[in-house]
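Predict structure. Chain length: 159.
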Amino acid sequence: MNRTSKSTNKKQIELDQEGEEKGLSGFIATAGVILAISYPLLAISTGLRAIYQLFFKDGVTNYLAPALSAIAALLYLIATIGFAVRERWAWRISVVALGLEMALVLLVGTLSVIYPNTIGRTVWRYYGIDYAFFPLVQPLLGLLWLFHHKTLTAYGIRQ
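Prediction complete.
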């Protein structure tokens, strides 16, 4: 190999490594944007569903499902703060909200399998089946994003 070929290969390796690192950064940034958009949308859809069921739908006898959907909408809004505000306090609030959301998705999802008539049609019924299981996956993605080292650095949690 001549000198030009070695130089070109070295530059290509440097570009590949830089591109790989930028790709990771791009992925993390994109995931944050997706979460910052999807959480408010889910909050709106879930909140409107709860409001309709609680106040406008005739014949509702079981208020557990709409109440759980209202709690879900509130948690989605709280979690959104951490995706939009790059401060330590917002990060902590989002971690707590997503942890609680994950626990409730698993609890309500399991109870809806065991006692389907008691739980009713809530956003977390059967682990979010009415929302393509997004309520099950979304808090996991959110927690993974919040605990990623680049996110921790951006929030000032880790140097």
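Summary: Residues 3-56 form the longest helix (54 residues).
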